[in-house]
Amino acid sequence: MDWKHLDSARRDAGAIEVDLIEAYAQGKINRRNFVKRGTVIGLSVPFMGGIIAACGGSSDGGGDTGAGEPGTTSASGGSTPAAGGGTAGGTLTIANQKPSGPLDPIAMQDLGSYNLLAQSFEFLVGLNDEGDIGPTMLATDWTPNDDGSVWTFTLREGVKWQDGSDFTSADVAATMDRLVASNNAAIAGVFEEGAVDASDPLTAVFTLTASNGNLPYLVSVFNAQSVITPASYEAGSTLDGMPNGTGPWKLDSYDPSTGAIFSRSETYWGEAPLLDSVNYQVFADIGGTGVTAMQGGSVDAIQQFSVVGGEGLLDSGDFTVLTPPSAAHREIWMKCDTGQFSDPRVRQALALTFNRQAMVDQLFTGRANIGNDHVFADFLPFFDASAVPQRERDIEMAKQLLSDAGFEGGISAQLNCGDLQEIPDLANIIVADAAEAGFTLTVNVESQDTFYGNQWCPAEPADPPCSGAAELGIVDYGHRPVPDTFLNAALKTGGVWNSSQYMNPEYDSTFEDYQRAVTIEDQTAAATSLATILNEEVPIGMAYFYDYLSGHSSSVTGMQVTALGHTFVQKASKS
Hints:
The protein is α+β, with helices and mostly antiparallel strands and 575 residues long. The protein contains 17 helices and 24 strands.
């Protein structure tokens, strides 16, 4: 241990940074989680490398200390090697999930829309080599104050919008105000309108309503609606209605039934893409007809596919599989305010019927991790695997709970879901497994075009949000590196995506503790309490976190993807 270097680092660091250094030096977190957390609070790669070396590790900055441009990691990290001297020119054709609504950066809700918007618009915080956040887009660095209540982002110089105007902090401030007005799922309650000081054109200073240890994630590529749009943008504006952006691609045309075509942007601040254009073909059934198109060679890449139905791609020597870090999952919501599932014993009973290992084996051939009816994935720096015992299948206990709740004769209900990838198959497995305990469930599968508005979160009634949701259903949630969006939007009282209508003052108070936690110790304590509450109350069943699968033909290099549906191809080439 190089105490001299550590002492020097402590003197030059703030309170939050010192806490992290101490946690790593004392062995409370491992190297990977030190780097992950250090990136969040704005520590540089050289600084982290120095701390690792002082504690007896390698100081080469390789492996999980990297934080560079997209497109340079292995396929298992969600990207293929950068094209480098790849072939210039040409068009890349990508199969994309069909957007379920207009290309509205604020109101979009599906992975198909997320991907198209991110071709032209960029985020304040971008993506690093390992699939985590990094200073690769509009902010070059960020730092919190000592208690995490004020965060300062330094903006990239020389960035222009595609209409020729300058990008400034005023655009960041206006975008954040629009997010606040829309009650954005990730930042609701984190800061208010007017929170961003834009007096310096190249500095955006966020003053939060309270301390927050995860803000950079909430304004990153992993909060899809936080794409930075011009200050002049108005709520309800769409990308195709007002084509613009600071990103590498400019929208040429968009047809909701066929897809979008982008060409290389001449105003992009970064290295010009090698490709001339990108053609995103949309598929309502991307796991079916999209996979067929990929196998037939009519597309070069596919945004996402499932193990079931995608076996031909997984077994093909001409297809490169991309598996970015993923906490993607399916939430089985149960209405908690009224109806048959308002008694937590009924919800526990249904969760006890899940054969989680069989789901993982049948639906993903092992390419998933078993869930425990909460949203904390095991790769989080503040996850305590021993805190909440794993729920196991127990039919006799499920029957007893139903009887105790007054349902000796069982329960009949409709299980609603969208026609997306493995979800209908999951629904059928749930129906068969739950029947053994006395649940008589019937499956209603709808097109994604109607499912969100009809079953999951109807616009009316809207007070509270999602109050018109069906009593039982399955909804898809894409990856987020931290679970703040899931906790805030789907589970907090009045959350914008709270289809369960879950209202628990203890949960809400503990969630506030979690949001305000800025040290690893405090985050772990709050996360453990939240996981315990959710596992006991079961407003949602959560059977697994699945590996996100994307990929491209062997003729393509330099493509990076996220498990939130993004395909970044500014460094891609096609031979």
